[in-house]
Write a structure and sequence with these properties.
Elements: E1 16-19, E2 25-30, E3 36-43, H1 55-61, H2 72-81, E4 85-90, E5 95-102, H3 106-118, H4 124-141, H5 145-158, H6 178-188, E6 194-200, H7 206-214, E7 238-241, E8 248-257, H8 265-277, H9 282-290, E9 297-303, E10 308-317, H10 321-337, H11 342-359, H12 363-374, H13 381-392, H14 395-405, E11 412-416
Parallel strand pairs: 2-6, 7-11
Antiparallel strand pairs: 1-2, 3-5, 3-6, 4-5, 8-10, 8-11, 9-10
Helix pairs in contact: 1-6, 3-7, 8-14, 9-10, 10-14, 11-13
């Protein structure tokens, strides 16, 4: 066996900063050797902002379906010609577009980006086609117990009236119109709500060119309204969704939790890995390897602006459902009562430190890691604190965290099958 050498990220590159003429913030991560750039145009326009189901994601997906000067096909032909590609994304908190391109084409790409982001037309025919596709995806997912279970869990922990908990129904795919998308876009896709994150081998005139295309933009005077959405978790802690003919039962156990702003969050990341956050976790060893009840089981803890949440996920056969649930709670209880042994904790620490190194492997990974803390008002000090916690956390601290954040009475248990 080769020697095990502890790793850590070392010095994490800091992002440069500039303000455009209209005070749009620009963050720049200079790294990499190839003449390639990545620009993330990001807005606080995610699911949490929507006042109708599917509104945020549909608005985002329609950005490239036709604009003031370009049809969708013409736009994509130009991007292909310049060797560029893009990813549209809608998350719980944020939405936007990431564009990858060779830096020599930056001026043309920024021209197109401005057109895509600020001058979309939301043509009715393309919207109808998109919603037909989305409805088909929705109906396919309604046959998947995994989708039924996770949707119900979000409804249970966020509340059915909160955008993050509200489940879409078939009629929602027929109710969106170009006018509704345009209204949402004009409220949330504004220069005042935009941040730009640039990474890669950055063109020397990047800030000047960003100023040329984005620095003179101003919204039409509309301001973002406070959503007024309040998390109101459901009182019922156990829900079963009967799915006739299903071969497996999906299990989702979880609850609201803390986010990255809480001092206990780094320790919770370690606890999560021990429980179910990697292939050698306790849940995998017990429920997959020893009991043979599932092909895979994992746990996650996620951080949102409004809250955090944690989820344990697996699929098992109908006859094994209760046994698997019992074993999940058993592993949680063990973490609350018996300190993790030094050897097991050492493996987890090495794994997590290696994963952190991966998070900063290249300029684009650095940009993703930067955004994941920047949106909370944090900086790279968060990662240094996380590394320090991984290296120094003791078994009794993990026990205390498990007692505090994994109380069985607080957990929601959702099954579908």
């Amino acid at each position: 066996m080769p020697p095990i050498i502890p790793v850590e990220p070392g010095r994490i590159p800091e992002a440069g900063f500039a303000l455009l003429s209209n005070r749009i913030p620009v963050y720049m991560i200079e790294a990499g050797t190839e003449d390639i750039m990545r620009i993330d145009f990001t807005f606080m326009a995610g699911q949490a902002a929507e006042y109708l189901p599917l509104l945020a994601s549909t608005t985002n997906m329609m950005l490239t379906e036709g604009s003031l000067h370009y049809s969708s096909s013409r736009l994509n032909k130009i991007l292909d010609f310049h060797g560029a590609f893009y990813n549209l994304y809608t998350e719980k908190d944020r939405a936007g577009i990431v564009i990858f391109f060779m830096n020599k084409h930056i001026e043309k790409i920024l021209e197109l980006a401005r057109e895509i982001i600020f001058d979309p037309l939301f043509p009715a025919a393309e919207l109808k086609t998109l919603m037909k596709k989305r409805l088909r995806w929705y109906l396919v997912n309604r046959d998947k117990v995994s989708s039924l279970a996770i949707d119900q869990l979000f409804e249970s922990i966020f509340g059915k009236d909160h955008p993050c908990g509200r489940q879409a129904v078939q009629d929602d795919f027929l109710n969106l119109s170009p006018a509704l998308l345009s209204d949402f876009h004009s409220q949330y896709y504004t220069p005042e709500n935009l941040a730009i994150i640039v990474s890669g081998k950055i063109h020397r005139n990047t800030v000047d060119l960003l100023n040329k295309f984005f620095g003179e933009l101003h919204s039409a005077g509309r301001s973002i309204k406070e959503s007024g959405n309040v998390i109101k978790s459901e009182e019922r802690k156990q829900v079963h969704i009967n799915k006739k003919g299903a071969v497996q039962t999906a299990i989702r156990i979880g609850s609201l939790s803390i986010n990255k702003l809480h001092p206990d969050y780094p320790g919770m990341k370690v606890l999560n890995v021990v429980l179910g956050g990697y292939f050698n976790s306790r849940l995998m060893k017990n429920i997959r390897e020893e009991k043979g009840l599932t092909y895979g089981i994992h746990s996650v803890i996620n951080s949102l602006i409004i809250s955090g949440f944690k989820v344990i996920s697996t699929e098992v056969s109908k006859k094994s459902t209760q046994k698997a649930i019992d074993e999940i709670y058993k592993e949680i209880q063990l973490l609350q009562e018996v300190p993790v042994e030094k050897e097991e904790l050492g493996i987890v620490k090495n794994y997590m430190l290696g994963e952190i190194v991966r998070m900063f492997d290249g300029p684009f990974a650095i940009a993703e890691s930067f955004r994941s803390v920047w949106e909370f008002g944090l900086d790279n000090k968060y990662y240094y604190r996380l590394v320090e916690k991984i290296k120094t956390i003791e078994p009794d601290e993990i026990t205390a965290l498990a007692k505090t954040y994994y109380k069985s009475d607080d957990l929601y248990q959702i099954t579908a099958g």
